[in-house]
Amino acid sequence: MKFKQKINSGFGQAIANTIIPAVLVLLFAMPEAAAQPANMDDRFSVSLGVFFADRDTRTRLDGDIPDSGTEVDLEGTLGFDKSDTVFRIDGYYRFNEKHRVDFSAFDLSRTASKQIDEEFIWDGEVYPVDLLVNADIDIAVNNLPYTWSFMRREDWYLGATLGLYVADIGMSIRADSGGQFSSRGTTAPLPVLGLRGQYDFSEKWTFRGSAEFFALDYGDYSGNLYDLYAGVDYQFSTHVAVGLGINSVRMDVGVDKPNFNGDLNWQYTGGLLFFKFDF
């Protein structure tokens, strides 16, 4: 299912302004007796939080002639915000102690308007210097990895992951004068391999980490991807934890399809603040 809802920076900031004070209250005002040991056997878990992302995006879209387009720096050339705050959902469903399926979904869509200071070619159209350009980019990320815990002890596990990293990508550029216009999109399903682990280093604190990779040429797609995550959770009740994490992703994808021929080089790194609910 495509995750299409746009989350703007104002909405994300409003969430952050609500959650951050709540987290501080929970960490410093909750009773000591509420803490329970972390549990690696919960059947279902969902994390709701805010993601503070810092992004670097470069893309090229050719027209009828391959490699004829110009690589465009979206933040520098078109004026897209480099930093933003978005809502994010993560979680997993555990079939048994060794097998589970994880999921995550968030939207990094943005809009921009700028009088450009350098010429570029996009989808066969020339955009000259001093032209006022309006642009939209939709990037919705859905990740669905399966994890097999091949090493497991009472307070830690290490698992191998195999999954699908789906990036739903769309972009439009239009001149304010009503002349040049282009709108294209594609969905890039990228299979990933990796490792995932957890270590309960006390009855309250848990470290979680994962690393997923993709490097392959197949069909209409080519490129590489990595997705790295590390974070800690504080378990302040049997079913609820609060956590902080950092996530770094780089994706270089080439697409050769009749309606989308070009490249997307996309990178983000950001902090994640969330509540985790276990059942």
Order of helices and strands: HEEEEEEEEEEEEEE
Number of strands: 14
Instruction: Give average pLDDT, whole number.
Output: 83
Distance between the termini: 24 Å
Classification by helices and strands = mainly beta
Share of residues in helices: under 10%
Portion in beta strands: over 45%
Strand count, sense and barrel status of the largest sheet are: 10 strands, antiparallel, barrel
Uncertain segments are 1-16, 22-37
Order of neighbouring strands in the sheet with most strands: 1-3-4-8-9-10-11-12-13-14
Which of globular, elongated, flat, extended, rod-shaped describes the shape?
Answer: elongated
**Radius of gyration computed on alpha carbons:** 21 Å
- Helical segment tally? 1
Write a short abstract of this structure.
The chain is mainly beta and 279 residues long. It contains one helix and 14 strands; from the N terminus they run H-E-E-E-E-E-E-E-E-E-E-E-E-E-E. It has a ten-stranded antiparallel beta barrel with strand order 1-3-4-8-9-10-11-12-13-14.
Describe this structure in words.
8% of the residues lie in helices and 65% in strands. The chain has 1 helix and 14 strands; from the N terminus they run αββββββββββββββ. It is elongated.
